[in-house]
Specification:
The complex is a heterodimer of chains A (106) and B (161). Chain A has 106 residues and is an all-beta fold. Chain A has one domain (3-105): Sandwich (Immunoglobulin-like). Chain A has strands spanning 3-6, 10-12, 16-23, 45-52, 55-62, 71-77, 82-90, 95-105. The radius of gyration of chain A is 16 Å and the shape is elongated. The mean pLDDT of chain A is 95. Chain B contains three helices and nine strands, in the order H-H-H-E-E-E-E-E-E-E-E-E. In chain B, strands 1, 3, 5, 6, 8 and 9 form a six-stranded mixed sheet that branches. The model of chain B is unreliable at 30-35 (pLDDT under 50). Classes of the chains: A mainly beta (106), B alpha+beta (161). Chains A and B meet through strand 5 and strand 6 of A and strand 6 and strand 7 of B.
């Protein structure tokens, strides 16, 4: 699964940072049918977790009400240089992970 | 004779226009009146699973969505909760609920004091014009909510329609 994480490259300690993630995923609702009339099974990213230097900072439980190619933006306080790592799993059991490095000065 | 014929026709036209206007106005005000009395539990019954009997009050939460979305597949959503976001006083979670989607719970977010600011942006699907409710769970056990009304011209075809 293709995903993109956006964080500011360099921030001051204690500063508020904007974290964004966009994942390429159909977020299939389970309410659609294919051209032969068979129901397309529901397959959405159900859980997404963000860790900042191995500490969980954000968790999202998503449903079929989230648009395809889910996008999320939230905030966190810059504490130390390191990584913000995302991991997620969909209904089909497929897992994905993506990370972004962050450098904290001062 | 000719003059009276014209005025009669005009009168009929006036009557028709008045009735047409009534058709538009009555449901609009009727719907507004009913909406004001409706409790939040009536709009989104699944809210009870979140609060579990605790009082739910309007305020502190800000839910920003477009008034008009010409496509229900991708509707931007921004939820902000007023909170100091300290260890003692912070937002534990935010739930986004839909009035008309086949699955009422759109998303559940867990956050904590490390967030610094309780604000989340995402994009949702909406099956038709409806109200969207954001419920915030605070660290002191209180619940606050906000609603946003969105008119969707082309629904997300969740039910093959």
């Amino acid at each position: 699964m293709v995903a993109r994480v956006q964080v500011p490259q360099q921030v001051k300690r204690g500063e508020l940072i904007e974290v964004r993630i966009a994942i390429q995923h159909v977020m299939e609702t389970g309410f659609r049918y294919d051209d032969r009339g068979r129901a397309i099974p529901k397959n959405v990213i159900n859980t997404l977790v963000a860790r900042y230097n191995d500490t969980e900072i954000f968790r999202a439980e998503l449903g079929s009400g989230i648009a395809a190619n889910p996008f999320l933006q939230f905030y966190t306080v810059a504490e130390a240089s390191g990584e913000i790592e995302f991991s997620w799993v969909d209904d089909a059991g497929e897992k994905g992970t993506e990370h972004a490095a962050i450098s904290v000065v001062g | 004779m000719r003059i009276s014929f014209i005025s009669a026709q005009r009168e009929r036209r006036r009557g028709f226009l008045a009735r047409l206007a009534a058709l538009w106005v009555v449901p609009f005000f009727g719907a507004r009146g009913a909406g004001a009395q409706e409790t939040i539990e009536a709009i989104v019954p699944s809210v009870k699973d979140i609060t579990r009997g605790a009082p739910l009050r309007p305020g502190k939460v800000q839910l920003e969505m477009p008034l008009l979305a010409d496509n229900g597949h991708v509707v931007p959503l921004k939820v902000t909760v007023q909170s100091a976001m300290t260890a003692a006083d912070h937002v534990r979670g935010i739930t986004i609920l839909s009035e008309r989607n086949p699955r009422p719970v759109i998303a559940r977010f867990q956050l904590g004091p490390r967030a610094g600011r309780a604000e989340i942006l995402t994009r949702v699907r909406l099956a038709g014009s409806q109200r969207v409710v954001a419920v915030a769970a605070m660290s002191d056990g209180a619940f606050w909510y906000a609603t946003a009304e969105v008119t969707v011209t082309e629904s997300a075809c969740l039910d093959q329609s």
